[in-house]
Sequence to fold (262 residues):
Amino acid sequence: MAKTKMVFQRLEKKYIITQEQKKLFLEKAGNRLKTDLYDASTICNIYFDTDQFALINRSIQKPPYKEKLRLRSYGILKSDSDIYLEIKKKYKGTVNKRRISLTLTQAQELLKHNKLPNKSTQISTELAYFMNFYQPKPKIFIAYERNAWIGNEDKELRITFDTQLRRRYDRLSFTDGDSGKLLLNKNQALMEIKVANAYPLWLTHILSEMKLYPTSFSKYGTAYMSDIVKEKKLTLPKESAHSEASVFTYQQKEAYSCLQAY
Fold:
């Protein structure tokens, strides 16, 4: 069995496409792509944030550096399944993802008591620092069906298609099913292209021919704007110069340290 990767650094771009466009894209890609080891799976996430939603509020303002914290599970959850606690950071277009694996019991302890397991690793220390700095709590459950493909020649190329995106704000648990209110319509898919450096030429040609253009889309951000900001008629907070400086000083340090870790 392949060893699960715990650290990622790559460029990621997102595209909202129809099911027909997905089919045509894969036909044009042909044997340049092959299904990933984990081709089809249900992915469940629980995102953490502060009481004032500071993390997602900052993220949707499109700063040079932003970060998210989530728990993630893959496929049908079993008692011995791994659940991953991930910190996802984006700095000037480069995405870094670092994570540790938890048991179901450890994940439940984190959800109920904000208690991290005792693991003496660099990533665990980083996660503990993040938790201590923000004091985040579980806020939203997001699930979707994912199909994943990788490059036949370029193994660093990964393309995923997420459908049936759904969310809920209650039952923030991995043991209560994966139901939720749809985030995109049934005919839409979120395509993500992930590369270490530049797109291969054939991929650029297909995207140009099909007139597919990248978009700024966040699953958590879209749900937050739709359900919390619009429904409750909230005004997004504007950070003061002092808070902007203090948070960004912390985030600049984190961005620099995570990029230097590779």
The chain has one domain: 7-260.
